[in-house]
Amino acid sequence: MDILLRGESAKSEIYTPYGLARILNLLEINQKSPEAFIESIPFSLNDTTAGSETELQTVVTGRKNDIDLPITIEESNYYQNMIKRTIAGDTPKRIITELEKYLHDNHQEVWENSWVRFPRSVLSPYANTVFSRDLLADKNDPAGTTRGDAGRFTFYKNGEEHIRIPLSYLLKLSLADAVSSGPELHLAVRATSERIMHHFLNDNTSPETHSFQTVLLSPGTGMGKGIARETSKRFLLTQFLTMYANRSFQLIENGQRAMIYFAPHPPVRQKYLNDLISDSFYRELFMSPCLSGWDRGEVKHHYMILCHQVLSRSHLNTLTKLKDAGIITRNLVVLPNLSNVSLANNGTHLSLGSRKLSGLVGDAASGFGAQEEKYLGDLAIKIIEHFLPLFVGSYSAAPYRLDFWDFHPEKALGYLPHELDYTHLRMIWRRWKGKARLKIFGNPITPFGPKWLDVFISKIFRLKGDFIPDFRLIDYLASLMSTDQSPALDGTLGNEKRLKKDLADLGVFDTNMSIYLLYRLRAFSSLGFSGFEGRHYSLFESISGDMGEAASLQALITALAYKYILKGDVTHAYIPDDPSTESERRQVFFGTAINIPTFYVRKGTQNQFMMKILKKMDKIRLSHRYPGYLRAHNLEYRRALIKIIKEDAADLIELMGLHTTLSELESRIENPHLYSAAGKLSRGILHEAHAATPFHLSGIEFNQAAESYYRNTLRMCQMKEAFALLEDDFRRIEARAALDGDTFYQQALIALLDGKSPLAFLGAVRREVIEERAPAEVLRKLIHLTLLTIHSDIRQSEAECRS
């Protein structure tokens, strides 16, 4: 450790925390004893609430002539114009040939992110009313005009009006129809359906759903297990609604079968199509019209168009940074497409709120306002970012294969040029090339340009490319780097607006967009609660197991960050806000996603918190390649983080009952093949593909096998996991109705099942539901029963949050 202690960063002065005594007083922190102190800090015992937002993948299966996506392409002016221009010789024949290949060579008959079309007459009167209202320019003005693009969503076929909509909006119509068809509903079912309807968002490319109720994290409910349970049940309801729409809206009858599931990457075929068409036509095909979730949906739709345009331009602008960094050293490059598919990446956002902070910021007389919230929140984020490598691959992942010809830096490095400084970008690229299978006679090489040449070279020298555990975090703009003049996390109000202005001037971002961060402050003024949103999760193999444990660890680390701050152990000065220091800590996160074994830190780093971690690490030495830098191992870094959590958060671990969470975390870190999300997902994909290792498959073979695994096997496993939770809920409601004399639920069960046991009903229909053979009437009853359990969950959650 001598090499650490001799560094310039070993400072002796003590920083004076910003108004610490005042903050402690405003937060009503009890300092009478260590136990009283830890119980009174934000995010401690019974202070943390949680909610999640999940992004899902959709497909419609069926023959080309029955599916909206190929029909829309072939009937489009764009396609007809391309044919005419090809015949005239104005456009290379290759493009129309490749488009024809996309349309006609789909042997699996899987059409990713296609819309669906069905007769409007199949909708119930209530569902029809919901649809008509959602076509309004402003839903708060029932007498107002319709959206300017309303004509996109209806058409006539054989004299009958049909609807065409994305699957993300289909869910809302399915829910509206399911609760307005058949016998008269119980009050609880109708009220719950109306409450949760706007939680099915028609946003981006993928469907998004967010929590039906806020969940209090407490040891009695298993901490993070509570929000995992809510997320799992929401996913199961999504499956029921999709199956119901397939039956009740005559989708299957008309050659269409809708499917919705968790998947982290844009589909291979969608990427392929994106390379053939213009950015404007891509948006027409795949950008959701925001029919659900916003009062002024068309305005939100234009915002999403802006996001796509900005991210596409931003990706193109990485070329200059790569050249300035010395990574691109020749003029021959593969230009990024003007249409970027990164918005089709899917993850889960996990938000935590503090009841204490929310109450104080919401009380104008408390003296604790937006400035204090921001000061503490930014500092907490800087601390927490050091711990995020623990989550990558361990709890969520996005396994991906890159072939040799994919290793153009302008493609493989994604948005990293906007997320890391030049020094760390060069270091990561060098280590990535060294780790990947790109070597000829011991020297790593990258593709030359023409794909035919790169394919030939890869075959001759057996260049396999690479396999990485979480490519989503590389292929998506996960976190924007600060500028020298505008730090994002210095604790001052308005710093994000200043940063967005700087980044807009650089062509990286737009001032109208929300700032992208790995861990983002959720301000009371904009959301009605004070807390944080974790945006670093890709795909969970098990919602109960992986997401539940991740939520517990996230809550623990957030509480630990506030403990550091309120004890005066860490201030903003301990973690400087310059871009280089910011990049220094985030390089470990991105290196973990790529599975790079080592990273480098300045010997004289000014980041005192990084020094704290390094002093707990083994296998650190001075770098021979980079004078003035320390060479550290990624695995040792994560081991050191676990040591720090065990030492510094021992009281919080005891208070929250998280000993098992720490034990499981160690297993995931030490034996990733067996216990980590990346290991479990990779095994499932390889089993799907009948392959021993990822390198026995090409990139396209592995990645398409992954899509098939997510769509079929993993979806079924996650449904079965959720069914077990639903059984527990049915058991509780049945017991409450029978033993506690709860007439409310007694009447509900009589109305839904004529007094029969919900457990018996579920047992009788479970197999045909999982095999997707259940008729609409069975699915309708299941939807109603699930809504009844959600009604119970909401009542319980509201009672807990009031206590």
What is this structure's SSE topology?
Layout: H1 2-5, H2 20-26, H3 34-40, E1 48-55, E2 57-61, H4 68-75, H5 77-87, H6 93-104, E3 110-112, E4 116-119, H7 125-134, E5 154-157, E6 160-165, H8 167-178, H9 187-196, E7 200-202, E8 207-210, E9 215-216, H10 225-248, E10 257-261, H11 268-274, H12 279-286, H13 297-316, H14 318-324, E11 348-354, H15 355-361, H16 370-385, E12 400-402, H17 409-412, H18 422-435, E13 439-440, E14 443-444, H19 451-461, E15 466-468, H20 472-475, H21 495-505, E16 519-522, H22 524-527, E17 531-537, H23 543-566, H24 579-594, E18 598-602, H25 608-614, E19 621-622, E20 629-633, H26 634-648, H27 650-656, H28 659-670, H29 672-675, H30 677-689, H31 699-739, H32 743-753, H33 758-770, H34 776-802
Antiparallel strand pairs: 1-8, 1-9, 1-11, 2-3, 2-10, 4-6, 5-6, 7-8, 11-17, 12-15, 13-14, 16-17, 18-20, 19-20
Helix pairs in contact: 7-8, 8-10, 9-34, 10-23, 10-31, 10-34, 16-23, 18-24, 26-28, 30-31, 31-32, 31-33, 31-34, 32-34, 33-34
Q: Any overview of this molecule?
A:
This protein is α+β, with helices and mostly antiparallel strands and 803 residues long. Helices cover 51% and strands 10% of the residues. It has 34 helices and 20 strands. Strands 1, 7, 8, 9, 11, 16 and 17 form a 7-stranded antiparallel β-sheet that branches. A 3-stranded antiparallel β-sheet has the order 3-2-10.
